[in-house]
Amino acid sequence: MFKFIRRLLLAIFLIIVLVVGAIALMGYVDYKDKVETVTVEEKVNALRSGATYVKLDDIALDMQHAVVAIEDHRFFDHSGIDYYALVRSVVVNISGQGNQGGSTLSQQLAKNFYFMEDKGRLRKVSEAYVAKYLEETYSKKEILEMYVNIVYYGDNHYGIYEASMGYFDVLPENLTLAQASVLAGLPQAPSVYALSNQNPQTIERQRMVLKAMLDYNFIDGQQYEAVLATISS
Questions:
Q1: In a domain, 12, yes or no
Q2: What average pLDDT does the structure give for the chain?
Q3: Residue 185 sits in a domain of what CATH number?
């Protein structure tokens, strides 16, 4: 009986390995097909050549910190895939305690480059390969810079320049903590949080961004309370 159970477990393990391997291989083939059609470098150059592209040094530090805090607080510690966050998101989602994503900024940049219209089952696998390539080819600051310049902030504002000017009529380098904490929260659900909607959920999302910034030591308690006071007033 013991030998049967052991053999059964071994067979299950081998099946799992084969399935995972097959998925990884198919995802890799899909990734290679996409990057050979249009290379990552071509995507990057097209983005950077845009008239409204903004260098990271010209974006307020509070905006940079807000994005990292709410989207990927381990951004500077992982190599494109945050396995800890991925496992945590699976546990949270399966347990029914919420709906939590595990995508890093690198994966989200990869998605914006190649997979916005791709609903295929292999998308996440292919996306991970692109994310790893981005991490191997570009610096963390370059990836963060490209991310804030490519994401959609709602109300037909693409990229940080359009969002900053369109919503607040200020250059990205002049964004305040209050403004940055609003903008950083929009890409998760721009159709919901867009400021033209005057949706109370937008304020709640801003609170989440500020709390994340506080939790990960990007701001102190005094700054946190000061912005909260303006939200509540």
A1: no
A2: 87
A3: 1.10.3810.10
Number of domains making up the chain: 1
Q: Model confidence at 89, in pLDDT bands (50, 70, 90)?
A: very low
What is the spatial distance between Cα 137 and Cα 98, in angstroms, rounded to a whole number? 34
Distance between first and last Cα of the chain: 70
CA distance 119 to 223: 41
Residue 8 above 80 pLDDT?
Answer: no
User: Would residue 114 count as lying in a domain?
Assistant: yes
Residue 25 domain-assigned (yes or no):
no
**210 vs 59, 66, 71, 144, 167, CA distance in Å?**
18, 7, 12, 19, 19
CA 51 to chain centre: 23
Q: Which two tokens stand for residue 32?
A: 């290679």
